[in-house]
Amino acid sequence: MIRKMNSSDFEKVYKLVCHLEETCFDLDKMKMIMNELIHSHDIFVFEDTDNIIGYLDLKIEYQMHHCDKVAEIIEFCVDPKHRSQHIGAKLFEYAKTYAKDNGCVVLDLTTNQKRQRAHKFYENHGMDQTHYKYTLNLID
């Protein structure tokens, strides 16, 4: 079942975020961030028998360079033990429909270069690689 994340989902989503980024984030700081994002983003979870096995963070906003409303997938992760079971496909399609229903003209995302399997997934779901993303670390 796909539904919006709520505050009681925090610990389960936290574990998925840590897995996605291959690190263990500060628990208290992450809780503060998630509590803020629940109110400003649309975060969906895939739940199976009270176990959250995937999530997708969708941000919808107007962007000047599109002159319209855009949906951006900020984060997207399925528990590795549950991959290849179409859970990611269901979350992606749900987000795509949600974005369309909310008047978005584009669905964007950025993904790490090392996630080759994810790149193939996005291409298989109709996405095109059209941009480069540059980052600058501001912390020494």
Automatic annotation (TrEMBL):
Residue ranges of domain N-acetyltransferase in the record: 1-140
Top-level taxon: Bacteria
Gene3D superfamilies noted in UniProt: 3.40.630.30
Database matches in InterPro entries: AcTrfase_GNAT_prd, Acyl_CoA_acyltransferase, GNAT_dom
Record GO terms (molecular function): acyltransferase activity, transferring groups other than amino-acyl groups
Protein name per Swiss-Prot or TrEMBL: N-acetyltransferase domain-containing protein
Native species: Faecalitalea cylindroides
